[in-house]
Design a protein that fits this description.
The chain is built from 13 helices and 4 strands. A hairpin with an 8-residue loop joins strand 3 and strand 4. A two-stranded parallel ribbon has the order 1-2. The protein has a two-stranded antiparallel sheet with strand order 3-4. By secondary structure, it is mostly helical. Helix 5 packs across helix 6.
Length: 265
């Protein structure tokens, strides 16, 4: 039965990955199959069987792939990897012994650089500080999942990532019951109301009030207007010759200036 399964898998890989083997540089290229979460296969017998099948494939002379297997060190799995015949063909990398700080720092620098480019608020080129970068690496404790969650939280055009990062780095579980990843609603209705009515009432004066100048007019942190209005580009035109945001259609102005229709807005 197991030999039959090996043959079936061999045919499957041959068909599914023929392009890899047929390439001119197939010998030079590292072809890798990644299996994540082997321990989540709850049947221990199935775990052992999967590992035997992998070993049977990986040790065939013409099989063009290598396997990378990520798993918790459950008994059946760690025993299989530390015992012949798999131990003769296996390199074990224990995450608790792996120095991941350099890789984490590389990941963070790439993500912070991307945020500086794409976020609607102006972000200084020297953000974050070396101290904050080091703190982000230290808090991760060599686990990519922590910094991955942090970056997903910061990657929101409706929030200021500089402020959010400080909330996260300053968080002390023993001192506060608040969760830095729990955030108030993205839309501040009172602020949105102020911005929309500023756009409406600025029109008769014909003054130049591009998005950045609205921050100054209302005493807001630079970039606040851009991040607050980030979801309203279907209603507002930000590309007028004066760079003043204007409504695409007058009906929106009529709506906002009608108390009975707009309510709190």
């Amino acid at each position: 039965m197991e030999r039959s399964m090996v043959n079936r898998l061999k045919v499957f890989f041959r068909k599914a990955f023929r392009a890899f083997a047929d390439g001119d540089d197939s010998e030079a290229r590292a072809n890798i199959i990644v299996i994540d979460g082997l321990d989540e296969c709850v049947d221990e017998k199935e775990q052992a069987r999967i590992l035997r099948l992998i070993h049977a494939l990986a040790t065939r002379s013409h099989f063009p792939f290598r396997f990378v297997i990520a798993s918790r060190p459950e008994y059946i799995i760690r025993t299989a990897f530390s015992s012949p015949p798999m131990s003769n063909h296996t390199l074990i990398l224990r995450l608790e012994e792996y120095e991941a700080d350099a890789d984490l720092r590389l990941f963070l620098r790439g993500e912070f650089s991307r945020l500086r480019l794409v976020h609607p608020e102006p972000i200084p080129i020297d953000w974050p500080s070396t101290e904050d970068e080091n703190a982000s690496v230290t808090k991760a404790s060599r686990h990519f999942i922590y910094d991955s969650v942090v970056m997903k939280h910061l990657d929101n055009p409706r929030r200021n990532p500089m402020v959010e990062l400080q909330h996260i780095l300053n968080y002390r579980p023993s001192e506060s019951n608040t969760n830095p990843f729990v955030h108030p609603p993205d839309i501040d209705i009172s602020l949105l109301k102020s911005l929309l009515h500023s756009i409406i009432h600025d029109k008769p004066r014909k003054s130049v009030s591009p998005v950045d100048d609205l921050d100054t007019l209302l005493g807001l942190r630079p970039g606040t207007t851009a991040s607050t209005l980030v979801d309203l580009h279907s209603l507002l035109n930000f590309n007028s010759p004066t760079r003043r945001p204007t409504f695409h259609h007058k009906s929106m102005e009529d709506f906002l200036t009608s108390q009975s229709r707009a309510g709190d807005l």
